[in-house]
Design brief:
- By secondary structure, the chain is mainly α.
- The chain has one domain: Multidrug-efflux Transporter Regulator, Chain: A, Domain 2, CATH 1.10.1660.
- The chain is 47% helix and 3% strand.
- The chain has five helices and two strands; from the N terminus they run ααββααα.
- A hairpin with a 5-residue loop joins β1 and β2.
- The N and C termini lie far apart (65 Å).
């Protein structure tokens, strides 16, 4: 006898700590799959909990849903990611995360130079115009156009 999906949307939401609307959204985006019972109610296999947990973990790292979807699409038969799959997926994201960490660290180091001065100098501000790169676009408030 084939196993039937038995978890309700409310059960999955409660177990994963997300709103029901989030599950509907994930389903709409193709990140998870639900089946309908005879009463047209959503039902899930228990492994959806791992998929939702992985989605939440990736989002905590700042990975956009589109990239999570692309990663899930690489899995054979849209199966639920295993621990090995997570290691592979997370390794792909590490370089991108390292770049973001480096950029945020530089921004944090430069931030104190801007606090309180209120100048927001288009010429000198290290946050909005590092290395005066906007000078190539001509004089004036080019960011405000």
């Amino acid at each position: 006898m084939k196993k039937q999906p038995r978890w309700t949307v409310g059960q999955v939401a409660g177990r994963c700590g997300v709103k029901v609307s989030a599950l509907h959204f994930y389903e709409e985006k193709g990140l998870i799959t639900a089946w309908r019972n005879n009463g047209n109610q959503r039902r899930y296999f228990p492994d959806v909990i791992r998929r939702v947990s992985l989605i939440k973990a990736a989002q905590q790292l700042g990975i956009p849903l589109a990239e999570i979807k692309q990663a899930f699409d690489t899995l054979p038969d849209q199966r639920t990611p295993t621990k090995r799959d997570w290691q592979t997926l997370s390794t792909r994201w590490q370089e991108r995360l390292d770049q973001r960490i480096e950029a945020l660290t530089k921004m944090r180091e430069r931030l104190t130079g801007c606090i309180g001065c209120g100048c927001l100098s288009m010429e000198k501000c290290p946050l909005y115009n590092p290395d005066d790169r906007l000078a190539k676009q001509g004089p004036g408030p080019v960011l405000l156009n």
